[in-house]
Design a protein that fits this description.
Layout: H1 3-24, H2 33-42, H3 47-51, H4 62-75, H5 79-104, H6 107-118, H7 121-127, H8 133-152, H9 156-172, H10 180-189, H11 193-215, H12 221-229, H13 236-253, H14 258-279, H15 294-311, H16 316-340, H17 350-360, E1 366-369, H18 374-384, E2 391-393, H19 414-424, E3 431-438, H20 441-447, H21 451-461, E4 470-472, E5 475-482
Parallel strand pairs: 1-2, 1-3
Antiparallel strand pairs: 3-5, 4-5
Helix pairs in contact: 1-5, 1-6, 2-4, 2-18, 4-5, 5-6, 5-7, 5-8, 6-15, 6-16, 8-9, 8-14, 9-11, 10-11, 10-14, 13-14, 13-15, 14-15, 17-18, 19-21
């Protein structure tokens, strides 16, 4: 065994250890809205309620949900337990990608490529987020690892691994379908037409099960409207770079040979299909939804760089030194960014808000919970054992995407909010009213009206002046003290 080959286990350990450390940084922070409804769904009493969650459209794939459900059944409902599955999947993605990259590129380039995948800011964020996106990276890495093993040494054993990866990937990651055409064509082109047919049949069978059972029942036009209105679109520069990279790799395709030639194809096709589907409005173009293609694009870069260095052997020592330096600098820079940006702090502090209510709210109080914080409140009410006062939920300003409830972007109206609030606070009520609502700007950008501030000002106008406002990260608690009234107040409060 060469010295560099003997370094592989040590480097793999260091990469996995660093991935774990990044994932643990902030793993106990409060879950935010999107995580909260996933958590509530996996904690539902039955599998049916998990797969077809009554409150929200279930966009997480079934295998991810089953893994989450098994974890909280084993370890209990907690922030760390809910995020253990994404972190484990991210570590699996790093290990699988490193194994795949090592088969198609020199060790320094394989290490650099793996650091680009493992320590990408979006990848780090979703390694400790109770959403499916790190599972999507793991599914792509598993397919690339199985494909590189098969193309490097076609045998019944490596083909079985490829078949298993193809069986597991779609239930874990719906976007894995973007990799399937390239895989089938590559196996066909190598002469194993029977194997290609088996792959096509397997993929078709899995998708034929997933679509009617899990995808179609959880789809609504509201999802497309939400993604169209999303404020975190992938930039035009990123789209152009992805197109150029994939097209350039396919242009180089004719000059390569053997396994490497078909890895070009397998890695480039998903990127081009993704760009096309996003341009047509079939698939959302946001950093997290594009995360699954990151391993493909980075592996393309690694293969192209290795090809280039193979044609210029004189510069290999100098370039290798620079590559090792870059591979060490990337995680250090990522660590600085995580600490400097306080990424261990919550995006929405539902936990803090519910803990405050448990300590200060009396059973006789009225607790009015806005739909923007409903899922987070219910999750932490369960975790904290919060039972009184019982919540009353508002009926306007829903975020995307509530099941059987049409709430398109900019659909909020002032009169509807006022009518709903007046219906929720009885005229005969005398005492404290707790208003709980989101203070996250993107929530109100989506609805088109800041309903939280309107709630507070309208309650004041109804004869419920405020006590001290309590602010948590992107979650607000506003206690209001009401006197029984016989008619609405005509006095508007001064803000």
């Amino acid at each position: 065994m060469s010295a560099r080959a003997s370094m592989f286990p040590l480097l793999a350990f260091l990469l996995l250890a660093a991935t774990l450390a990044f994932g643990l940084f902030g793993i106990e922070r409060s879950l935010w809205l999107d995580e909260a409804w996933v958590a509530n769904s996996v904690h539902a009493p039955t599998l049916r309620e998990m797969f077809y969650y009554p409150g929200w459209l279930q966009t997480s794939p079934p295998l991810f949900l089953l893994l989450e459900r098994a974890t909280i059944h084993l370890f209990g409902l907690s922030n760390a337990a809910l995020r253990a599955v994404p972190l484990t999947l991210e570590m699996a993605a790093v290990g699988l990608f490193f194994a795949a990259a090592r088969r198609v590129a020199a060790l320094p380039l394989a290490v650099l490529a793996t650091t680009l995948v493992a320590f990408h800011p979006v990848a780090i964020e979703y390694s400790r987020t109770a959403k499916q996106y790190s599972g999507e990276v793991a599914a792509s890495a598993a397919l690339l690892a199985a494909a590189s093993a098969y193309l490097g040494n076609a045998s019944p054993r490596t083909f079985r691994w490829l078949l298993v990866a193809l069986l597991v990937a779609p239930p874990l990651s719906y976007p894995a379908v973007f990799l399937i055409p390239g895989l089938v064509v590559a196996v066909w082109a190598t002469g194993d037409r029977r194997g290609a047919a088996w792959l096509a049949l397997t993929a078709s069978s899995v998708l034929a099960i997933l679509y009617p059972l899990f995808i179609r029942p959880n789809y609504s036009p509201a999802l497309r409207q939400f993604w169209a209105a999303s404020s975190e679109h992938v930039s035009s520069a990123a789209l152009i770079a992805a197109i150029c990279l994939c097209a350039g790799a396919l242009a180089w395709f004719a000059f390569a040979a053997g396994a490497r030639q078909w890895m070009y194809w397998i890695c480039a096709v998903p990127g081009l299909l993704l760009v096309a589907s996003s341009a047509l409005g079939w698939y959302p173009a946001t950093p997290r939804t594009w995360l699954f293609v990151l391993p493909c694009l980075v592996m393309l870069l690694a293969i192209l760089a290795d090809e280039f260095l193979g044609r210029w052997p004189r510069i290999v020592p100098a370039v290798s030194t620079m590559v090792w330096i870059a591979a060490a600098a990337i995680p250090l820079a990522a660590a600085w960014r995580q600490v400097h940006q306080h990424r261990n702090l919550p995006g929405e502090d539902f936990a803090g808000a519910v803990q405050f209510l448990r300590q200060h709210a009396a059973p006789a109080d009225l607790l009015l919970v806005h739909p923007s914080v409903k899922e987070g409140f219910e999750l932490y009410a369960t975790m904290e054992g919060f039972a009184a006062p019982r919540p009353v939920y508002g009926a306007t300003g829903w975020p995307c995407c509530v099941r059987d409830h049409l709430a398109p972007p900019h659909s909020s109206t002032r009169q509807a909010v006022i009518d709903d609030l007046e219906a929720k606070i009885p005229r005969s009520f005398s005492g404290r009213v707790w208003l709980m609502y989101s203070s996250r700007p993107t929530q109100w950008d989506y609805t088109g009206l800041d309903e939280g501030n309107l709630w507070r000002s309208q309650a004041w106008a109804m004869g419920c002046p405020p006590e001290q406002f309590v602010a948590f990260t992107n979650v607000a608690l506003s206690p209001m003290v009401c006197s029984a009234r016989t008619a609405p107040s005509a006095t508007e409060p001064r803000r």
